[in-house]
Design goal:
It contains nine helices and ten strands. It is α/β, with parallel strands linked by helices and about 350 residues long. The protein folds into two domains: about 130 residues, 2-Layer Sandwich (Nucleotidyltransferase, domain 5), CATH 3.30.420.40; about 170 residues, ATPase, nucleotide binding domain (Nucleotidyltransferase, domain 5, 2-Layer Sandwich). Strands 3-2-1-4-5 form a five-stranded mixed sheet, with helices on both faces. The chain has a five-stranded mixed sheet with strand order 8-7-6-9-10, with helices on both faces. Helix 1 runs parallel beside helix 2, helix 4 packs across helix 5 and helix 5 crosses helix 7. The protein starts with 6 loop residues before the first strand and ends in a 16-residue tail after the last helix.
Length: about 350
């Protein structure tokens, strides 16, 4: 193997997707994701079922990643894995597998913070894909997190604001559930929103201090709205689905963008990146692009495949840690709550 070439095998198992990727330096050469359909029956993630599915998926997913990358495991320089945050049972599967494989191959082990990986996904090498320059602001938006982070370097990050209750992804999914949409509801709310009038219905925006967020009040107001209107007309949701979704999405995006504008004003940093599963939302992407035109921001939006949970983003953190000589010991354990 060329001394200049670093091969990282990355493993991601924080929630319900089992993923493995191989990176050659900062370039992704394979990124395999196995999704779990079983949770659709329950309308949300069932942790015990998720960890069992990871146990079934992890060996074939890693095998596929190596096969697609066309390299032998003996060529690997290190194993990177998600240590946390996430579901403990799911994290344990990935952590145990990564530790065992690294030990068996006698190569370094690299632990990765899942949320840090969503931010550093922007540094995966892609043709014609500019990378943010330090310092920049990152908004991480997912099913479990909503944060505004000041990013000073690959490993120096400061949380400026975060949700006080529910995450934005949960707000989207629960809104979808209230409207009778199957799980996960977020992508469907986005789909129907594109066909509706975003000003048809008005939902309250919570008043939250500083750069923090709150979505529980919005969810409650949507619940009461749906109950009130369906009492008057049992077919209300069905007849107004596109407009309801558009109005909900408009409100959520306004909440996010208001905080982002405030963060830019406070810090004087106008380089803004998004990451996490909800950054796949078309409305948020449009709002960010409009802010670029209207406020002179430089905005960075990841490719769709690097928005949701995936091992490629774990691998890019692994690559930078490898170059910096930041390795983990075999005594390391999974961490369900893991602050950036």
């Amino acid at each position: 193997m060329d001394k200049e070439t670093i091969y990282i095998l990355a493993i991601e198992s924080s929630c319900d997707d089992t993923s493995a990727a191989v990176l050659r330096n900062n370039k992704v050469i394979s990124n395999i994701v196995a999704t779990q359909q079983i949770h659709e029956e329950y309308g949300g993630i069932v942790p015990e079922l998720a960890s069992r599915a990871h146990q079934q998926n992890i060996v074939p997913v890693v095998h596929q990643a190596l096969l697609k990358a066309n390299i032998d495991k003996k060529q690997l320089s290190a194993i990177a894995f998600t240590r946390g945050p996430g579901l403990m049972g799911s994290l344990l599967v990935g952590t145990s597998f990564a530790k065992s494989l690294a030990l068996g191959l006698n190569i370094p082990l690299i632990e990765v913070n899942h949320m840090q990986a969503h931010i550093l996904a922007h540094f995966i090498h892609e043709e014609n894909n500019p990378k943010p320059k330090f310092p920049f602001l990152a908004m991480t938006i997912s099913g479990g997190h909503t944060q505004i982070v000041k990013v000073d370097s690959h490993f120096t990050m400061e949380i400026l604001g975060e949700t006080l209750d529910d995450a934005v992804g949960e707000a989207f999914d629960k809104s979808g559930k209230l409207l009778g949409l199957p799980y996960p509801g977020g992508p469907l709310v986005d789909k129907y929103a594109q066909l509706g009038d975003s000003h048809k219905f008005v939902f309250p925006k919570p008043k939250v201090k500083d750069l923090n967020f709150s979505f529980s009040g919005l969810k409650t107001s949507i619940l009461y709205f749906v109950q009130r209107e369906t009492q008057k007309n049992p077919n209300f949701v069905e007849e107004n689905l596109n407009d309801i979704c558009a109005s909900i999405q408009y409100t959520i995006i306004n909440i996010l963008m208001d905080k982002l504008k405030k963060a830019v004003k406070q810090t004087g940093i106008n380089q803004v990146a998004i990451g996490g599963g909800v950054s796949a939302n078309s409305g948020i992407r449009s709002a960010l692009k409009n802010a670029e035109k209207n406020y002179g921001w430089s905005t960075y939006i990841p490719k769709f495949e690097y928005c949701t949970d995936n091992a490629a983003m774990i691998g890019i953190v692994g690559y930078y840690k490898f170059k910096s000589g930041i390795f983990a010991s075999q005594e390391i354990t999974a961490k369900a709550r893991y602050i950036i």
